[in-house]
Amino acid sequence: MHIQTAAVHTLRDFEHGAVVPPVHLASTFELDPATEDGAYAYQRGSNPTRAQLETVLAALDDAEHGFAFASGMAATAAALSTLTVGDEVLLPASVYGGTYRFVDLVLPGRGITGRFVDDLGALTDADFTPSTRAVFIETPANPTLRITDLRRIIELAHRHGALVIVDNTFMTPVLQKPLALGADIVVQSATKYLAGHSDLLAGTVTTNDDTLAEAFALAQKAQGGVLAPQDSFRLIQAIKTLPLRLERQQSNAEAIVAHLREHEGIRQVWYPGSHSEEEARIHASQASGNGAVLSFELAAGLDSVAFLRALRFPAYAVSLGGVESLICRPATMTHEAMTPEARQNAGISDELLRLSVGIEDVADLLADLDQALAAAR
Ligand SMILES: *Cc1c(COP(=O)(O)O)cnc(C)c1O
């Protein structure tokens, strides 16, 4: 089944012939007094509506197991909770700000070390120590859109007995399936493309490993950061248009990248594969598209505040993946938890702007960018 069909038809045959699934709000479920058996017992452990969403999540990633959490960070925290005292995890220096915060401020208290690496793509055997238990990858990286070779890092990490966790938020299963390339765990902030309308906070974990799946079921039950039934239902519905939305968002982004590259008001544009032919080749070998996030810097002498104020459509706001375009300044917004040196090493200048492209008519977006660039002079 192709992914657009799976997004619509994975769940079928509901009571009364309903064509959308029911929402089960019950926090508790009646059990057989003799055996205390029942498919469900208490909402935190599992409930029918979240279970339906989790079936869809697994189907999208061709995975054995899917889990829905209350946010992308709850999902990432669950993935990193597979680590224990004395373990080390390798991460890119430009990793999502919330993940940076968790690794920087929470993991040390558990005796776990996060080692931030400037260029994760350049990892070699020498970077692994006996305590390296996991590698956490974002490809494309945010907001530099640098590409990491998943096959190479997965092979390297597995040779050293380390798990590979991929944050696939920017690509979604529509464009990239890291589990199929051998990754152990995929996390996503479903707040972004999966939900797609900037109106829902959610996170997902998928895996093919039964032992890891037990750990994630435990994380749901023991830590409790689960997605509520109403939000699970809304995410099931939103996912039905995910491939459709992303296709439009990506074609809009391609047109904007081509336009900005030719614009005298733009110093540089970053998009997957733009850093080198090698990265473009790697990205094309592991993903089926470039997605809908790009970054750029205005040419010297242009006033970025005037540019941002003049924009009519992209709202100046963090987040991405929604039907409406959003623009932000990573140095002061999404990546402010990093030190200035760490940002510099990761290639995130104070002037870099990140644009998440929505589903608007691209002619309106291009005209808007042009008039705002003119206003920035
Ligand atoms: C937003 C985001 C997260 C965190 O997700 P929340 O749903 O905001 O908790 C994690 N990783 C990436 C790449 C993100 O963009």
From TrEMBL:
EC number(s) from the headed UniProt entry: 4.4.1.2
Keywords of the record: Lyase, Pyridoxal phosphate
Cofactor: pyridoxal 5'-phosphate
GO MF terms, alphabetically ordered: homocysteine desulfhydrase activity; methionine gamma-lyase activity; pyridoxal phosphate binding
Source taxon at top rank: Bacteria
Pfam short name (any one): Cys_Met_Meta_PP
InterPro entries documented for this protein: Cys/Met-Metab_PyrdxlP-dep_enz, Cys_met_metab_PP, PyrdxlP-dep_Trfase, PyrdxlP-dep_Trfase_major, PyrdxlP-dep_Trfase_small
Modified residues (N6-(pyridoxal phosphate)lysine): K192
Signal peptide annotation: none
GO cellular component terms, semicolon-separated: cytoplasm
CDD domains xref list: CGS_like
GO terms, biological process: methionine biosynthetic process; transsulfuration
Catalytic activity entry: L-homocysteine + H2O = 2-oxobutanoate + hydrogen sulfide + NH4(+) + H(+); L-methionine + H2O = methanethiol + 2-oxobutanoate + NH4(+)
Family membership noted in the UniProt record: Belongs to the trans-sulfuration enzymes family.
UniProt-listed PANTHER family: TRANS-SULFURATION ENZYME FAMILY MEMBER
Protein name as catalogued: homocysteine desulfhydrase
Species for this entry: Brachybacterium faecium (strain ATCC 43885 / DSM 4810 / JCM 11609 / LMG 19847 / NBRC 14762 / NCIMB 9860 / 6-10)
Organism lineage string: Bacteria, Bacillati, Actinomycetota, Actinomycetes, Micrococcales
